[in-house]
C-alpha cells in the first residue's frame, strides 16, 4: 500500500508552483554552470528556504551526472525529534511539486534488519525540512531517470555510533549506482542561535564567521572524522548537519573507493557587522572519486 510523505514545506520554504519551481532550479543550475561528472558520488548541500540557500545548493547538485545512478541515500539532521540513533522513513513515496520520488523499500528492509535503526513516524518525517529541501533538486537533476531514495534521519548520534553507521553504509559507497546527498547548513550566528563566537583578528564579524566555517570545511575536505570532531569540540560551531557529515566521513574512510570532498561554494544569509545581527552560512561540496 502506498504511504505518502507530503511536500509539507512547499508553499512556504519554496514555491509549490511546479512551473515556477522547475524554472527557478533550472536557472540556478545554469548559473552555477558546472560540468556533470560521473565521478561525483555524493554532495553536501544546505537545506534552508530556497530564497536563502537555493542558489548555493545548485553548486552541489549541478555536479551530478544522473545516467548511471539508480539510488540516492539522503542523510539529514533531526531538528525537532530527539533520537540517539538514525531513523528510517515509513513512507513509500516522497512527494515534490515537480515529481514524486519512490523509496527503496528493499534497502530500507535490509537496514531495518540490522537492528541499528528506529522508524520515524510520518508526522516526524513531514515536520523535518532537512531532507525535504534536497528533494526538488534531486527530482530536477534526475528528471527522466528512474531513481529510488533511502532517507536517513540522523539523530544526536555519539562519536562511536557515527563510526558504526559509517562502517555499515560503506559497502553502499562502493556501488557506483548509489549516490549520497548529505544535508547541512553551516554556522548559525547570533543571539537567537545562542552562538556568538567572534575572533577580532579577522576583522568584521562576518569575516570571523567565514574563517571559522572555512576552517571546518578544510577539515571536512581532509576526510578525517576525528579532526572534524575535535574542531567541533573546540569551537562548537553550530553546523546543524554535523552528525550526517561525520557519518559520511566515516563511510568514505571505510569504503574501498577513494573519494575526496571538495567545497565549491560558500555564502551567508546576511553579513553580520554588530552583535545584534544574525546569519546562517551555506556551503556546497561534491564528493568525487579520486583517481
UniProtKB/TrEMBL annotation:
Domain of life: Eukaryota
Family: Belongs to the MEMO1 family.
InterPro entries referenced in this protein's UniProt entry, alphabetically: MEMO1_fam
Cited Pfam families: Memo (PF01875)
Protein name: MEMO1 family protein
PANTHER family attached to this UniProt entry: PROTEIN MEMO1 (PTHR11060)
Amino acid at each position: 500500500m502506498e504511504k505518502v510523505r507530503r511536500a509539507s514545506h512547499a508553499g512556504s520554504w519554496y514555491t509549490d508552483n511546479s512551473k515556477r519551481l522547475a524554472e527557478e532550479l533550472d536557472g540556478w543550475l545554469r548559473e552555477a554552470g558546472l560540468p556533470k561528472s560521473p565521478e561525483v558520488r555524493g554532495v553536501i548541500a544546505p537545506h534552508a528556504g530556497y530564497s536563502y540557500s537555493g542558489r548555493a545548493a545548485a553548486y552541489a547538485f549541478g555536479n551530478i551526472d544522473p545516467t548511471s545512478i539508480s539510488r540516492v541515500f539522503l542523510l539529514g539532521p533531526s531538528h525537532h525529534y530527539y533520537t540517539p540513533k538514525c531513523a528510517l522513513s515509513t513512507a513509500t513515496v516522497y512527494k515534490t511539486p515537480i515529481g514524486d520520488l519512490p523509496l527503496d523499500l528493499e534497502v530500507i528492509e535490509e537496514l531495518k534488519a540490522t537492528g541499528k535503526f528506529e522508524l520515524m513516524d510520518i508526522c516526524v518525517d513531514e515536520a523535518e525540512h532537512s531532507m525535504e529541501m534536497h528533494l526538488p533538486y534531486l527530482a530536477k537533476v534526475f528528471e527522466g531517470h528512474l531513481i529510488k531514495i533511502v532517507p536517513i534521519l540522523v539523530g544526536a548520534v555519539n562519536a562511536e555510533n557515527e563510526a558504526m553507521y559509517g562502517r555499515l553504509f560503506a559497502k553502499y559507497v562502493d556501488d557506483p549506482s548509489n549516490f549520497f546527498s548529505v544535508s547541512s547548513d553551516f554556522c548559525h550566528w547570533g543571539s537567537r542561535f545562542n552562538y556568538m563566537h567572534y575572533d577580532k583578528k579577522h576583522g568584521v564579524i562576518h569575516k570571523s564567521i567565514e574563517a571559522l566555517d572555512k576552517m571546518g570545511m578544510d577539515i571536512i575536505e581532509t576526510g578525517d572524522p576525528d579532526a572534524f570532531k575535535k574542531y567541533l569540540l573546540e569551537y562548537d560551531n553550530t553546523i546543524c548537519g554535523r552528525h550526517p557529515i561525520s557519518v559520511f566521513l566515516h563511510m568514505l574512510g571505510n569504503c574501498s573507493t577513494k573519494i575526496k570532498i571538495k567545497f565549491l561554494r560558500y555564502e551567508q544569509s546576511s553579513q553580520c557587522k554588530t552583535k545584534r545581527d544574525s546569519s546562517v552560512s551555506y556551503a556546497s561540496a561534491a564528493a568525487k572519486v579520486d583517481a
